[in-house]
Here is the input.
Amino acid sequence: MIDIDSLADRGFTVVPGLIGPEQCRMLANLWPDKARFRSHVIMQRHGYGQGEYQYFTYPLPEPVEKLRQALYPELAQVANRWNEQLGSAKRFPVTLQAWLRQCHQGGQQRPTPLLLHYGPGDYNCLHRDLYGELVFPLQVTVLLSDPRRDFSGGEFMLVEQRPRMQSRGEVVPLALGDAVIFAVNQRPVKGSRGFHRTAMRHGVSSLRQGERFTLGIIFHDAA
Here is the structure.
């Protein structure tokens, strides 16, 4: 399901149709249910861009919990390989429950999966989702709206800051239900002298019209 080679070569990969249209609608329709969320953020109040997002509270909605649990083990293998290539002794446990116990013991106890909502003119500045010292190096974004019908613009963007080189940008086209898996902060890149770190940030370009919902799945909890 996950293209490991693309993750290694480009720092991201797309999983087409990770969830179906009905589940996309169901998740997007959770937006007004305030009891499902622990926090509501208006981006422009903080200089993050323009738009809104809400962090889910525990227990997570069942589809979100299942996705988080199902995706983690294979991504943990990738994360451990990346750490090995970068000379780090850190290794992630094989189950999400074990990793979250480490987060909670380290004072990071607030859930981080979230719903994001964009309207005309909204955008998300380039950023990294770091919520404390404990960071899982991969995360997932799932498009819950149909770009053929629901909105235009609003492309998912990645920028890689390469050492001693100019930054490289990438626009990642997504269809309804597609997921993009990408590096949260840093990833290994092989050079002539072995592997080195390169930093990545992500964001969303301005929506021209319509309404765009996305689901974000982050595997470390927040302090």
Notes: The chain has a mean pLDDT of 95. The chain has four helices and 15 strands. The longest strand covers residues 194-204.
